[in-house]
Amino acid sequence: MGFSVKGKTVLVTGAAMGMGRLFAEKAVKEGAANVVIWDINRPELEKTEAALTSAGGTILAQVVDVADLDQIEKAAEEVKKKVGAPHVLINNAGVVRGKLFWEHDNIRDTKFTIDINVLAPMYIARAFLNEMIERNEDSRLITLASAAGTVANPKMAVYAGSKWGVLGWSDSVRLELEQEGHKHVKMTTVCPSYINTGMFEGAKGPLLAPILEPQEVVDKGWAAMKAGTPLLFLPKTVLLSKGLKGVLPTRAWDFLAGRVLGVYHSMEEFKGREAPDATK
Asked: Which residues are known to be catalytic?
């Protein structure tokens, strides 16, 4: 019998809207005993809590700034006291800054992006992982990385760097769990191309990698999580780009990515959301 969330506790970060909310909806629909939702946006979080409760879910909503380690640790302790460590942890929260590297503000752009995209998943996983290991029950940890973690791209240097970092971290922890005999805790890293959530407003999908719809990414990411799939690239053509980049000389790849596939021009008209937030 495959892994099921029925009767289990699921925690989703960046859950007030977008893909985070969709993940939480799937958890409620499939019978999770408790669904813990974290987000910095209190008004939207309260709306999502009400909707999920109306749909039959038992919800623990917490306003958490995942860029703040103290808030993460405090919220995690509350979760463990009220419902126990999650059986499914979904590190979904993320931000993007689409500008030339030298235009980044060190605090509002660079540190902000690294804190949320790289450090937050590490801090949150660290807050629960020992309990997930010691409980010795099938558990899952899914991290939303990005195709940007596999291919360099102009006007997203810090974002790409953050996703390279979280991809390397997540897959390394997967190997540690396997090698140390903790195979009941499975890590899944999802690497999608651009997603139509508003976060990448204005970005253009490269050739062979059209803009993805949030529900598709959530559905496939959820299925991969349940199956314990280590890495999921969406669309599958991301793997082709990854492979070509690995075998072609740098300048040959630059020509292909820039002039043929359009990867290097995909952020030229990027606008993003009007206000920065921490949700996918």
From this structure: 159
CATH number at residue 117: 3.40.50.720
Percent of the chain with pLDDT over 70: 97
User: In sequence order, what are the beta bridge partners of 39?
Assistant: 63
The total number of structural domains that make up the chain: 1
pLDDT tens per residue, range 104-133: 999 999 999 999 999 999 999 999 999 999
Q: Is the residue at 260 inside a domain?
A: yes
State mean pLDDT over 68-88: 98
Q: Domain containing 257: what range?
A: 9-265
Q: Per the domain annotation, does 140 fall within a domain?
A: yes
In 3D space, the residue among 175, 179, 132 whose CA is nearest the CA of residue 9 turns out to be: 132
- 6, amino acid identity: K
Residue 91 has pLDDT above 50, yes or no: yes
Phi-psi region of 59 (alpha: psi -120 to 50; beta: other; left: phi over 0): beta
Helix, strand, or coil (residue 34): strand
